[in-house]
């Protein structure tokens, strides 16, 4: 399924952890919003072409206004979607940030 695919997979480059981070960002986006990345696409090959052009899905800015957890998740998802894999967090950093977001739940 598309939500588990990252930009570089379409470029045929070496697979690594940062590609999984991109995919995890897609999964978090789907969980948060209930939407699939590029939900308007009917042709399963269309998202791949859009990703090759550097496009990515987006999250409605209103999610940032829902609360601390949502704002933290949106920021994390956008970091996971960084076009260049070296700009993405590691999975360890993703886990730490998720824990920080959840730990602050009671203080917001």
UniProtKB/TrEMBL annotation:
Organism the protein comes from: Entomoneis paludosa
Protein name: Protein kinase domain-containing protein
Organism lineage string: Eukaryota, Sar, Stramenopiles, Ochrophyta, Bacillariophyta
Pfam families xref list: PK_Tyr_Ser-Thr
GO molecular function: ATP binding; protein kinase activity
Superkingdom of source: Eukaryota
InterPro entries per the UniProt record, alphabetical: Kinase-like_dom_sf (IPR011009), Prot_kinase_dom (IPR000719), Ser-Thr/Tyr_kinase_cat_dom (IPR001245)
Ranges of residues in domain Protein kinase: 1-102
């Amino acid at each position: 399924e598309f939500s588990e695919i990252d930009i570089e997979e379409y470029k045929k480059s070496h697979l690594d952890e940062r590609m999984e981070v991109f995919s995890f960002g897609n999964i978090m986006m789907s969980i948060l919003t209930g939407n699939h990345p590029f939900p308007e696409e009917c042709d399963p090959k269309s998202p791949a072409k859009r990703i090759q052009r550097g496009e990515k899905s987006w999250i409605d800015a209103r999610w940032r206004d829902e609360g601390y957890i949502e704002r933290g998740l949106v920021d994390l998802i956008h970091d996971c979607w960084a076009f260049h894999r070296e700009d993405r967090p590691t999975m360890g950093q993703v886990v730490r940030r998720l824990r920080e977001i959840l730990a602050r739940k009671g203080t917001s």
